[in-house]
## 1
Amino acid sequence: MNLSNEESALFFKLWFSLLAYANRHLQVVPGIVEPEDILDEPREQVVKIRDALVKHPELLESYIRENPATLPPEELAVVSSWRHWVSGDFFVVRFLKPYAVFLSSKEPGHLYGVISLYDPLEEVLGGGPVPIYVRALLLPFRQRIIYDGIIVFHSIYFGPGFRASLNDTYNELKEREGIIEQLTDSSGRPQIRTSLDRQKPRKPAPDWYPVVAEIVAQAEKMRQADTKVQSAAFGLLRAAAALARSTLADPSAKEEHIQALRQVNSALTRLKKLLY
């Protein structure tokens, strides 16, 4: 999903005004005084101004206070929301229909749903396979998240193991906290909303613990068998029941779940050796 052309034009009007203001104070790139001067500058020069502004957030505060471009209140509110920008390195891990998903590289990691400007982000990023490692500045814009129009690529090859790890992190964060889709409210005040906020609340599951505990108790009695295959199958049943009981007893005890899963895998391996 992209911003409309009108919204993209508004963003660049406000952003270039802020960048020109920052450059007038910091003198990062000589000759840039007015917002229109930004248009003629190479991308690398604009990045220098952008990065200098991020290091000096007090300039954003003084811009808001002085309002040098005499912005109307609704436009100044957009600029005010940039107090809550997110700058750094990210892994682009998904291209979804509503946005691209950026995973922050710093701990604790978060997922951000980033909307493109004029051109779809998948095209901006070359249409290559994910993950893509980038440096970017994410900005609130009218209760959505965009980027500042410039993405710096890091040329790094990711092996299968790291890709799998990133995919696991994506799935875990999406399940636990959702994808952050909004950083501020319409007035520029902080207000986090995620993809989970849009989901209908799920009905709580029944309390399966007594049922599973009874299965575990009955499975423990199943020690006698006529064949080795039956014995191995009963062992797999006991291990699987114990794993289910572990997840119900303490859903947060990941290490216990992993240990119980190892027992399941061992029991399954024994059964496979007998059958194949």
## 2
Amino acid sequence: MTYDVIIRDGLWFDGTGNAPLTRTLGIRDGVVATVAAGALDETGCPEVVDAAGKWVVPGFIDVHTHYDAEVLLDPGLRESVRHGVTTVLLGNCSLSTVYANSEDAADLFSRVEAVPREFVLGALRDNQTWSTPAEYIEAIDALPLGPNVSSLLGHSDLRTAVLGLDRATDDTVRPTEAELAKMAKLLDEALEAGMLGMSGMDAAIDKLDGDRFRSRALPSTFATWRERRKLIAVLRHRGRILQSAPDVDNPVSALLFFLASSRIFNRRKGVRMSMLVSADAKSMPLAVHVFGLGTRVLNKLLGSQVRFQHLPVPFELYSDGIDLPVFEEFGAGTAALHLRDQLQRNELLADRSYRRSFRREFDRIKLGPSLWHRDFHDAVIVECPDKSLIGKSFGAIADERGLHPLDAFLDVLVDNGERNVRWTTIVANHRPNQLNKLAAEPSVHMGFSDAGAHLRNMAFYNFGLRLLKRARDADRAGQPFLSIERAVYRLTGELAEWFGIGAGTLRQGDRADFAVIDPTHLDESVDGYHEEAVPYYGGLRRMVNRNDATVVATGVGGTVVFRGGQFGGQFRDGYGQNVKSGRYLRAGELGAALSRSA
């Protein structure tokens, strides 16, 4: 009996939360054919992975990515796969590229996700051959995919297709009954084709790109709850999921999602919801103490099925000048980001009346809910033409100069060229004890990496490895907060169950998506970030993670696609170009069935 791949003598985690066992796995035809306590015959096997002393886990699932354009340019999605991710979910935050034309989709996507519009538009213009969800799925599945892909239909995409982008972002427009019916019909077509559900957005912080309707909020944010309920009814009928984000400025918004999810108020058929976001935010330090309990209580009282996505690492952000989404919280910030011309933007930032307005807004909004702590003493310069400022916080510079912190910040940007000043801050998940509690909290699930977006702001592609490191380190220190097997489950099988994805487990008969991890290299290398030029984004230097000694191998569909090592990782020949390992995973298909039909 010949195997295509043998993974020998590894500590095997099956993705269900069961305790690990030392086993050898034999893989054939894309499926885990054998899980053996002893040796397997390696005769004729072209690929043997020596996993002695290593962990063998199901490939990680990343449920919150924005690879919608990038998958068309680089179907290998290397920045995720090299860290053991084998399945990614597209179409989050109301943004997908299914129905909207290429120009509308680029305007919806680019500024929100901080990916240069010219490359998003080019990717869609050159590759958009579809006009229906079924055709979209066929087009994605025809790519030489590295990982598996599933997707949601974005509400902003849907709304734009029915109303047009102008009407979809006009607060005075209410869809007609015929238009609401058309939205429901198009959503149902997407679910019928195999999409997992719909994504929405209720927080108006994100803005459109382009010239036509620049700086308007996303279409999904203009929807009334009457419109949302009509679309959620389609999800309920199909048993599919909603991903969305409540409006942080309106606490009632979150309660409405719980009610819409409820079985009690909806003929005993609820809707699973994955919401943004559960974090220990510096701007709201007390919220973390009640967030999990509150979610569990509401789910129980209302019969709801709501979970919040949690990124299980410190939320460290970088920014070139003001190119950071948190500045969209301010009208003054949006006004500056509205200007793409660098000279015009610098002139605005230097203008005294603009600064007075910005200061008033900055100080006033700071008292309410916020995604950012707005503490310039906690914002450190890491790159600047004036080398004497590197390593200093803007707050410290303000103290030295006797200025308001916002003025010191703007002075440094104007004096050095706004985009020449790079700085960093941690906005959430900064307290280890609270971070550990969140990782074990049953009302959250692991996600929110934003992989493929915010290319100059963050790099959380390896968040799964970082969670495993923290769990392992805590166990060694005698202060466990999450067993390794439970951590693996939270990154794999649990997500597959909640989202309805045919992946996440590594048992006999399952699709063979896996990662082999060297726990001795779960070290400081997983916590850093690097920069790498992206050729298909015009050489833009993207933030990435590099810990290639940690992942010994990543396998997708029964094929080893990445081999790690201390001297760098290597992908198989033709990977992401003319060799296909992943596929589009439709809703409701089982992992084993997918494997056998691949």
## 3
Amino acid sequence: MAADYAVLSTIYTTVGMARFAEGMTPRLIDYAQRNDWLGRRVLDLGCGTGASLEWLIRHNYITVGVDQSPEMLDQCRTHLEANQLNHDLRQRDVRELGVDIGGMDMVLAIDLFNELSNLRDLETLFKSIHAILNDHKLLIFDVHTIQGLSYQASLGDQIMYDNPNLMVITSNQFDHDRQSHERRYIIFHRADDAWQRYEGFRVLRGYPAQAIASLLQRCGFAINAVVTPDFEVFEPGVSRADRIIFLAEKQ
């Protein structure tokens, strides 16, 4: 997993990197419920700074938040405690969830799967998730498609965020051999009338939707739906979209 969250954690929420998770979480829970999902125990995998967790906790779900980055978990913990929200946060490699997490009714993973480096990592994670889910419960996750990553990279350099004390410029490149998008974040932060410069990065790997679907089925999941963020049906190998969401049920 390639990303510099020691740097990005301090700006992640401020510059809007958690916005998709914040907006999609209530919609995904509602969509799952309208398609007969019932449950209270939710694992937020790759919980980051806590955008999904906050909504889940406020709506009385029993949650566990897992993230690999200690810096992101520190930001998450600070935010939840500032809002007087109880939490269960755990730092670990998301591919190795361990035996102490189990009995989950849903695993929710937003903005995570493209950070896995290869299909073997995807398969390892699917098996790990399968082991902790209750039977016939859901794994819900999103992925940027190869088309979507290529488009993002084509945008070139952009000013992502600009205010009197913080400016973030992004530089984008697409590796056609690895089907991956590298985004570098050049961060200028003003403190005590002096500007400081930092750099961070993320590498997002693209995977064919058909390959993801095949891995899910191999790992014991049935695919209940593949949809766009607008909840339009996506057909792997036929439809086109920049980002898609899988709803997979443990068999």
